Amino acid sequence: MRYLSLIILAILLSEVAFAQDAFQQLLAAERGYAKAAAEIGQKQTALQFYSDDAIIFRPEAINGKEYWNRNEDTRLTAVRTIAASDISSNGQLGFTTGSIELFQDGNGKPASEFGQFVTVWGRRENGKFRPILEMSTRYDRLIVYKPKSEPKRIFDTEANKARRSSTDPAMSFLRMSMGRSALGGAYKEFGANDMRFLRDGMPPIIGRKNVTAETKDYIAVKFPFKVALIESGDMAYSWNVCEYANSEEGLERGNCLHIWKLRDKKWYIVLGAFARVSSDKKPELKAGRKKRM
């Protein structure tokens, strides 16, 4: 029995060591990507680092390399400051998120835009991490997370040996956001306690309670006709076009991204992002709804 316990302990330690090594590789990829974005510009960085199937939003989902190949290089550079990151238990999928400053003509002039970024990373050729999806939100002033030390992660990985699928909770989240509980109720049910939520015009919202409070008046007006969901180990990400009824503001349409993590045998959202696109539609809403966000 003692030897069995030692074997189990050795396996657990090896899994933690593997996850730690993969996490350091992810951070190294982010650092290289950020360095290039600040020095050679967004276009050349994307063409150099993106996977061939990488998705960005301009505003619709589009192949990242194809987009930058068609656009002129305006020397748009970016300064990225990472705030949080995590990786799947099998080391195949991860994400980084934080603040971003954009410079239209290089870093010698004041920044033209500020915001938050989410980069989803996947292992590709030669086992290297490459961006496979990127989404960003924007606001008018600089809000930068400046950590005192390198970002750390909590090793709450699950091997997902039971192969619990993230599909059912992802679909349940979408259906719940259309019901009486609205988007806030869906986040209350599926959001992690330490989740982050990004939106245009504001800095990140941290914590499930805060996210629930800020989204309780948003109701999805229809089930998305297309949902993309990729799962690997104990991590998954999903994105879709979304439309929400928001008090007197009418419809708010945009792209929604969620990072899911398996914790204690249940899938939770650890990061959500809503990047708005302009819409002039005006729905007929019930009186008495309060304006949020």
- SS strand fraction: 35-45%
Q: What is the oligomer described by this structure?
A: single chain
CATH architecture of the largest domain: Roll
Q: Tally of extended strands?
A: 13
Indicate the percent of residues in helices: 25-40%
Low-pLDDT residue spans = 3-18, 145-152, 279-293
Task: Describe the main β-sheet briefly.
Answer: 7 strands, mixed
The Cα radius of gyration reads 20 Å
Helices, by number, come to 6
Distance between the termini: 57 Å
The CATH C-level class name of the largest domain: Alpha Beta
In round numbers, the mean pLDDT is 82
Structural class: alpha+beta
Domains (count): 2
- Helix-strand string: HHEEHEEEEHHEEHEEEEE
- Label the overall shape: globular
CATH topology of the largest domain, by name, is Nuclear Transport Factor 2, Chain: A
List the helices and strands and how they pair.
Elements: H1 2-39, H2 42-49, E1 55-57, E2 61-63, H3 64-70, E3 77-87, E4 93-103, E5 113-123, E6 129-139, H4 167-176, H5 182-190, E7 191-199, E8 202-206, H6 208-215, E9 219-220, E10 227-232, E11 235-245, E12 251-263, E13 266-277
Parallel strand pairs: 7-13
Antiparallel strand pairs: 1-2, 3-4, 4-5, 5-6, 7-8, 9-11, 10-11, 11-12, 12-13
Helix pairs in contact: 1-2, 2-3, 4-5, 5-6
Question: What does it look like?
Answer:
It is a single chain. By secondary structure, this protein is an alpha+beta fold. Helix content is 27%, strand content 37%. The longest helix is centred in the first third of the chain and has 38 residues, at 2-39. It starts with a helix and ends in a 16-residue tail after the last strand. The model is unreliable at 3-18, 145-152 and 279-293 (pLDDT under 50).
